[in-house]
Amino acid sequence: MNIKRAGAAIVVLLLAAVGSQATAEEAGHWVQVDRWRETHEAIYALENRIAMLEANPQVDDGYKAPIISRARADIRRLRATLPRAHWQWVVPCCYSRKHIYIR
Fold first, then answer.
1. What angle do CA 31, 24, 32 make, to 5 degrees?
2. Which of 39, 47, 68, 86 has its CA 20 to 30 A from that of 99?
3. Contact at 8 Å (CB) between 54 and 68?
4. C-alpha torsion angle, residues 86, 90, 91, 96 (rounded to 10)
5. Rounded Cα distance, 10 and 15, in Å
6. What is the pLDDT of residue 103?
7. Which residues of 2-23 are buried (b: 16+ CB within 10 A; e: fewer)?
8. Cα–Cα distance for residue pair 35/16, rounded to 1 Å
9. DSSP-assigned letter for residue 85
10. What does the pLDDT read at residue 35?
11. For the chain, which ranges sit under pLDDT 50?
12. Helix residue ranges, H only, the chain
């Protein structure tokens, strides 16, 4: 009876280990997606702030110039943290098909 319980416990532990690895990889993927989304939202907010400052003629240029410069530097810094885009297309690019000749 004890051998059966030990065998069952080993099987359960093995299944849990296999399942936890997939779950850990999936969780890591979602952490990256969340970080990407947060970075893009921050860039969007900074760009909107710059646009609002530039569009407002009542605000002095001496006041808004350092704010805009700092925001643009922050945007460059945030864009540098994003990984390069690796697009995966379902269909091949248009340059890979045969040329069409018209007479």
1. 15
2. 86
3. yes
4. 30
5. 9
6. 75
7. eeeeeeeeeeeeeeeeeeeeee
8. 28
9. P
10. 87
11. none
12. 2-55, 61-81
Whether residue 18 lies inside any domain: the answer is: yes
Domain that holds residue 10: 2-82
Reading the block at residue 36, the tokens are: 């990407």
Look at residue 74 in the predicted model and tell me its pLDDT.
95
**Residue given tokens 């299944």 in the structure block:** 15
What would the two tokens of residue 40 be?
């893009």
In a domain, 89, yes or no: no
Domain membership flag for residue 101: no
Query: Residue 29 is which amino acid?
Result: H
Task: Give the position of tokens 């410069």.
Answer: 69
Residue 13 is assigned to a structural domain of this protein: yes
Given a contact cutoff of 8 angstroms between Cβ atoms, the answer to whether 53 and 64 are in contact is yes
